[in-house]
Amino acid sequence: MSLKNFSELTEREVLAIAIASEEEDSRIYLGFAEELADRYPATTKVFQEMAGEEDGHRRQLLEIYQARFGRNLPAIRREDVKGFLNRRPTWVMKNLPLETIRNQAEAMEADAQRFYVQAAKQSQDVGVRKLLGDLAMVEKSHGEKASALSEAILTESARDEEGKTAHRFFVLQFVQPGLAGLMDGSVSTLAPLFAAAFATHNNWSTLLVGLAASIGAGISMAIAEALSDDGSVTGRGAPIIRGAVCGLMTAFGGLGHSLPYLVPDSWPHAFWTATAIASAVVFVELWVIAYIRARYMDTPFLKAVAQIVVGGVIVLAVGILIGGA
């Protein structure tokens, strides 16, 4: 079915689109509520209330449609009209941060209001025009309604609890896989990189080893993280997102001390210049890892330093010893 211009729609089609849209929005809000039930019970109630309102709008529209056109609804939806946004399916919103879902709900209400404003202008029937105009005002105030519901339902203690849950979800989905990747990329690539450096004293060859080790480790860690847990039981979020975060941070960790070997071999003291820069980068990387562990993983900073920095230095020394042998 080709897309129609809004001006081409009949009043029957406008009402049919409105009915289908209200039903779809109600299901989406219920989907939000189901998705958030375990993590954000207070916000779940807000979306349940909004779903109930959308269902009430659907019944109003259906009554006036049946009175004018009978029970048969034409097979047309808002997505069949040019200029209107498709609704994102609820599975796309799965495991997303709470604020992202709330923003999606606001966008839905703004889109619905725009539809009803145009629909009311096009309608020739006074009763239908009044209903559509009223619904446009309702959708416009829905954001305020949601805020009012939030104020009533999301008490200070509920907000604090949801804030803690959001922080925990952020740590599980982004910090943990990112930290694991950064640790792996920063530490595991040290030995092959510096072994190649001290074995060849050639910056270009060392760079190639570093790129291969970093990118290869990134791909490996991304796949391993994505396949390790689907997040349904542990609440660690979407595996694809975790895998991407872990893989990118792994590659980033390795590339950080590989790229200094871009220093041309033709430069005076090129090898030692690149090695000095790479060593400084390694030092910074290890301290950043120690800070993240202390900041997000409740690890005492000095303990984190001992675990990461000392371990990294040992791996670095092993690479230099093997390369220089």
List SSEs in N-to-C order: HHHHHHHHHH
Strand content: under 5%
Given the C-alpha coordinates, what overall shape results?
elongated
Percentage of residues assigned to helices: over 70%
Low-confidence residue ranges: none
Taking the sheet with the most strands, its summary is: none
Computed structural class: mainly alpha
- Counting structural domains, the number is 2
Termini Cα gap: 72 Å
Q: Count every beta strand, where a strand is a DSSP E run of 2 or more residues.
A: 0
What features would you describe in this structure?
- This protein is an all-alpha fold and 325 residues long.
- It is 77% helix and 0% strand.
- The chain is built from ten helices and no strands.
- It is elongated.
